[in-house]
Amino acid sequence: MDDSNCTVPQLFRRLRPWSLAALGIVSCLNSGCQSWQKSHESAITNFGAGDLELSKSALTDSQKSLRAEKKLLELDQAILELASGDVRQAEGRFRNLRHELEFLEQKDVTEQASSMLMDSRAVAYSGRDFERRMVLNMALLTSVFGDGQDSFAYSLQVTEAAANRREAIAAKLNKDTSSSHLAESHDTTLPASNISPAGFVANVSQGSLAVPTSSLDQPLALSSYLAAAVQSESPTRHQETESAITDIGYWNPTFLRHDKISSGGEFGTRCEPGNGTLHVIAFVGKSPRWISESAEPTSAALLIADRIISATGKHTLPPTIASVKIAKPEPAGYLLPAGSLRCVVGPSNSAPQQIAASPLTFSTVVDMHEVAQASYNEHRDQEIAAAITRRVMKKGAVYVLKETQNIHRNSLVDLGINVAGIAWEAMEKADTRSWRMLPGRIDIARAELPAGQWTTKLQITGYGTTGHLSSVPIHIADGRNTYILCIIPERDFTGNILVGGADNHIVPASNVVSETN
Known about the structure:
Layout: H1 8-49, H2 52-64, H3 70-83, H4 87-104, H5 109-117, H6 129-145, H7 151-179, H8 197-205, H9 219-231, H10 238-251, H11 253-262, E1 275-284, E2 289-294, H12 296-312, E3 325-330, E4 341-347, H13 352-355, E5 363-367, H14 368-404, H15 412-426, E6 441-450, E7 452-460, E8 466-476, E9 481-488, E10 497-501, E11 505-507, E12 512-516
Parallel strand pairs: 1-9
Antiparallel strand pairs: 1-6, 2-3, 4-7, 5-6, 7-8, 8-12, 9-10, 10-11
């Protein structure tokens, strides 16, 4: 039957299966996503407010949803377990998630096909590049605050990961400089084309070549710092410790400059005889959330292209109304300003006024806002290219459908298919999935102290008239490292303060008191 002569009821009967299928898909996707995401947002809000029990309950509700991102939610669950003092459970979860995310990172043909039909959210969440690096860092960190049995093995793994990344950078720079005919310059250094990647890395370490690093790699500065601390407890690992300390400056030069100015002392066995090291680690704020961004220039180009094809081709294409969507980061919640956390250390029998004379200096080893922005800049073109490919595939599918079904141009069925095509394209959403309870900033302060019993006072200052103070008793051992971890997702400490390394205990949240400045 000539579809141009269809009556309106006949046309509706023809389009009804398509309409029901489209509505079913949209309803399923929207209700499923909104259900778990709403509970997830509630968990994040309660975490920032310091109510871990409500946060855990909301996170559990998210995980019960049919289409919930199970691995993503487990990452946040591990942070809640860490804040609650359940270090062993958190370590096991990070260890398992690391391997599972690595597996999900592999290409799956079925998922790739689904992403072309829908959008990039059809691919299982495997984490962004910096998030996967932070999972390994967290596994090492939780081991340090736990029994420490796997900390040495983790330190070797993070060192290997950093070395692989460094060699990849060196190889890329080697290739780039070779293509720019560096050998023709009058520089006294060897041409990059004559330097192997390994040799190139060695030259960088010795300071003979400067290789710029991106903020994207800041998590590797934390990797190097933790590796240096763990390795430093073995006198036979002096060279490995030295290399790890050098790498801190490679991945985050600003941190190393501040660290040297603060004179925090050495690591472990590198300290003076009879001394040990205190490392105070602060998880500040929450990682940026990712929101949808319209790639307008791309959308304009697609609009022009489909107009040209519609004007010259046998069949019309659905007009480009919905813009191409990609994800971009933006700050989430309140981020405590740098310098607001005060840490003072004194002998266990010292009075507060005596302790307050020597505050430690915190330096930022990872700024997740800078890291997320660098990741966005690094992958933006790739994300746009994938979105364009997906849009072209959808338009092509509509064109093929009209050709195989012999749909007449400008008929009612042709119009109906175009409308369905517009709805199909409008269903696309940017992939805004991210690890939301990952700290927005990681600050570290270090002090070399004589072995013995000490008291650490942690206080948040800089706003209002009330300072929030926590007293943390610690033990420093000769040639060992003692660690303190505090979590400040908004304006105050959340959960417990953890002590690990040579000393190992949990300071309950009830030990945090308020004092007037």
